[in-house]
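Chain A, query sequence.
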Amino acid sequence: MNKTANYQFTIVVPVYNEEDNIYMLEERLGTYLPTATYATCVLFVNDGSKDKSLERIKEICSRNNDFYYIDLTKNSGLSAAMKAGIDMAQSPYVGYMDADLQTTPEDFNLLLADIDKYELVMGIRANRKDSGFKKVQSKIANGFRRMMTNDNVQDTGCPLKVLQTSCAQKIPFFTGMHRFLPALVMLQEGQIKQIPVRHFPRVAGVSKYHLWNRLVSPFMDCFAYRWMKKRYINYSIANQNIEE
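Chain A, predicted structure.
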């Protein structure tokens, strides 16, 4: 049996070469779980790390009852790691956070307060602790994305989100689509709420983002989204006799 079915909320944490953050993740997540709004587990997704991340993930999972992991056969990118975690989750709700600890799991409770009324509740990074250059890149990318998708989302890059699992597992993920979660939820006629959350400087490890995957690649992905939006299939079943 998939052990995530024993919980109401699964936190998916994609990991790629974050060995210096694994023990801090254990501490922060371990402190949060007893205070979580719902019975919660953690699902680490090792995305083909080449450092000691997997070794340390296995170590902390062995000593924490509510920690689990899956290990991808090769580095497949953030969208693939997120999809793998979401597909594995069998709890009613699924969340996502980065392994860099620039957000805190404690703020999941802010998002969970409204998850029964919205398909997606997501954070907005308040007092963002990034460089000015990084903020400018994000501002440009967010503005262009809003123009192309009409999602009216202020900070799609905030790495703290909670979704209803039934909705999350219908999202048509492909490379780069983690940037378009709100727009993809809207394709399903889902409702979205945005809530300010705390943001912190990265204290360990190295960012995997640069000019190409923060600015240039998202521009290209916007056109892919527009193409898909015109062809997206929505349906609902009026009646059936396949289930009792």
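The chain has a mean pLDDT of 85. The beta strands are 9-15, 40-46, 67-71, 93-97, 120-125, 160-164, 192-197.
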